[in-house]
Design brief:
Layout (H helix, E strand, L loop, with lengths): L2 E4 L1 H14 L5 H20 L5 E2 L11 E5 L2 E11 L2 E9 L4 H4 L3
Parallel strand pairs: 1-5
Antiparallel strand pairs: 2-3, 3-4, 4-5
Length: 104
């Protein structure tokens, strides 16, 4: 079965998100967020076409897609589908200037 993989940048994004959330959310809510990221990734392995294609990202391929993290719509999971699963490339808050962050 195909597996999701996570880039070093996406891992850093997740760590940053958890550290920020720790300032104002309960530990249980943070755990739900982390679990939701991986549940979303597993779902994308099954249905890689679910996300919206990101047309203007020269840093990544034409195949870059985004989808809200399940249950946390203010967070976007950016990924690239492949034959071996998906590669999560970034996990960013939707209110950030993510088009700029996805540029080279």
């Amino acid at each position: 079965m195909a597996e999701p993989s996570i880039s070093p940048e996406a891992y850093d994004d997740l760590v940053d998100a958890v550290e920020t959330m720790a300032q104002y959310l309960s530990e249980a809510r943070i755990r739900r967020f982390v679990r939701a990221v991986f549940i979303s990734a597993d779902r994308l392995v099954e249905f890689p076409g679910l996300g919206v294609r990101c047309q203007d990202s020269p840093r990544y391929t034409d195949e870059l897609r985004r989808i809200p993290v399940a249950g946390f719509d203010r967070w976007l999971l950016f990924y690239i589908p492949s034959d071996s699963g998906i590669r999560i490339v970034r996990i960013l808050p939707s209110n950030q200037d993510w088009p700029r962050l996805l540029r080279p």
